[in-house]
């Protein structure tokens, strides 16, 4: 069968790549077209409007590739602003099954997108255990929880990688101080808005701690260096799991990184600043349909890790909350205990294997039904 996959961010790229590997195992004759353009991943209304021409060009190019390549199905990975438009196009024009792996977080905002999902998406392969019930309550039953890929990926990492702190420090020219990790996201805009606050706040502890920025492989080194040039911090690219494995605490922007940090048992503070933070703070209470933005808190359904959002992202606030999760801090043990509960809720699954099996099974079922009709 011919599979057309679309992803737009670093985490989605990782999950899509692993899914392709598993599809190859279960369908040895499989062919793939992978559309991955992280430069089109913009967040927020202002940024989208500013880059609208580029986004529309990318959408049209993707539609053309789908029409020309003629896949047997589409597999959409996260990236909802782009992918839901492609799902609509596929439903109207190419008439193939559409699978959504890592579904849009419409339970947080833009709940109206449920109508497009009912109309255009054949099946959702969910990676968050509460999503199945949420969709069912809104009359969409085609949701299967396949497990969480981050659990699978980090368990494999921990099994295969020994925690040799001295070797890691020698490789990256780090000293013997314990490490505070800084994960400022994979998008240019996230980094520009958050990294400087995180670095300046963490620098307060630089006498006793080594500061390390874990940088996604898709991020330009020059962007990071412009921010950290005058601060005592080391940037390490494409080695985030190792950075976290050897860290004592972390400052993290919202997203998959919050979950990865928790799975590697590193106490964290979540920081997420946007354009016009005071206005965004007002809109947040109007637009958001959930109490929390970090995956950790959403999964355990309580405020386990501190979330500093929009106008709350200040150097003073970050310093204070970071102190609470460092050794001796009053929040540290509570967070570590909560992480164990989170792991229990997520469960242990062969996530990508389950996702690939579900896609192939539905595809084969559809083919049998179509043959019977003919």
SSE blueprint:
Blueprint: E1 2-7, H1 10-26, E2 31-36, H2 45-50, H3 52-69, E3 73-77, H4 80-93, E4 98-101, H5 114-120, E5 123-126, H6 131-136, E6 143-145, H7 149-160, H8 165-171, E7 179-183, H9 188-202, E8 210-215, H10 221-228, E9 233-237, H11 240-245, E10 247-252, H12 256-263, E11 268-272, H13 277-287, H14 295-300, E12 306-309, H15 315-325, H16 332-346, H17 351-373
Parallel strand pairs: 1-2, 1-3, 3-4, 4-5, 5-6, 7-8, 7-10, 8-9, 10-11, 11-12
Helix pairs in contact: 1-17, 3-4, 4-5, 9-10, 9-15
State the gist of this model:
This protein has 374 residues and is an alpha/beta fold. It has 17 helices and twelve strands. It starts with a strand and ends with a helix.
Any overview of this molecule?
- This protein has helices at about 10-25, 45-50, 50-70, 80-95, 115-120, 130-135, 150-160, 165-170, 190-200, 220-230, 240-245, 255-265, 275-285, 295-300, 315-325, 330-345, 350-374; strands spanning about 1-5, 30-35, 75, 100, 125, 145, 180-185, 210-215, 235, 245-250, 270, 305-310.
- It is an alpha/beta fold and about 375 residues long.
- The chain has 2 domains: about 1-145 and about 350-374, 3-Layer(aba) Sandwich (Rossmann fold); about 150-345, Rossmann fold.
- Helix 9 (about 190-200) links the parallel strand 7 (about 180-185) and strand 8.
- Helix 9 packs parallel to helix 10.
- The two termini are about 20 Å apart.
């Amino acid at each position: 069968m011919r599979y057309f996959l679309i992803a737009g961010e670093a985490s989605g790229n990782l999950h899509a790549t692993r899914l392709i590997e598993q599809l190859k195992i279960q369908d040895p004759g499989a062919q793939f077209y992978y559309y991955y353009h992280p430069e089109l991943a913009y967040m927020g209304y202002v940024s989208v409007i500013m880059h609208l021409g580029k986004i529309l060009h990318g959408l049209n190019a993707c539609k053309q590739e789908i029409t020309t390549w003629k896949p047997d199905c589409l597999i959409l990975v996260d990236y909802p602003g782009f992918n839901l438009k492609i799902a609509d196009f596929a439903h109207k024009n190419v008439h193939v099954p559409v699978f959504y792996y890592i579904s849009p977080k419409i339970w947080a905002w833009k709940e109206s997108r449920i109508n497009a999902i009912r109309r255009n998406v054949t099946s959702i392969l969910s990676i968050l255990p509460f999503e199945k019930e949420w969709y069912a309550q809104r009359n969409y039953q085609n949701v299967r929880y396949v497990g969480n890929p981050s659990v699978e990926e980090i368990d494999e990492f921990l099994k295969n990688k020994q925690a040799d702190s001295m070797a890691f420090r020698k490789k990256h020219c780090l000293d013997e101080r314990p490490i505070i990790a800084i994960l400022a996201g994979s998008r240019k805009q996230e980094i520009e808005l958050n990294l400087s606050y995180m670095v300046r706040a963490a620098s307060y502890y630089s006498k006793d701690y080594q500061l390390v920025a874990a940088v996604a492989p898709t991020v330009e080194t020059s962007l990071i260096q412009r921010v950290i040039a005058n601060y005592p911090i080391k940037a390490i690219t494409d080695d985030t799991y190792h950075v976290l494995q050897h860290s004592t605490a972390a400052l993290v922007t919202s997203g998959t990184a919050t979950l990865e940090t928790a799975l590697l048992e590193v106490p964290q503070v979540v920081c997420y600043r946007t354009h016009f933070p005071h206005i965004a703070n007002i809109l947040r209470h109007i637009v958001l349909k959930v109490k929390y933005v970090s995956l950790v808190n959403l999964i355990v359904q309580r405020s386990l890790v501190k979330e500093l959002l929009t106008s709350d992202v200040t150097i003073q606030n970050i310093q204070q909350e970071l102190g609470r999760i460092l050794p001796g801090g009053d929040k540290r043990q509570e967070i570590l205990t909560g992480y164990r509960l989170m792991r229990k809720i997520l469960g242990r699954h062969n996530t990508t294997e389950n996702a690939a099996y579900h896609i192939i099974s539905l595809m084969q079922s559809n083919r049998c039904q179509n043959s019977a009709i003919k």
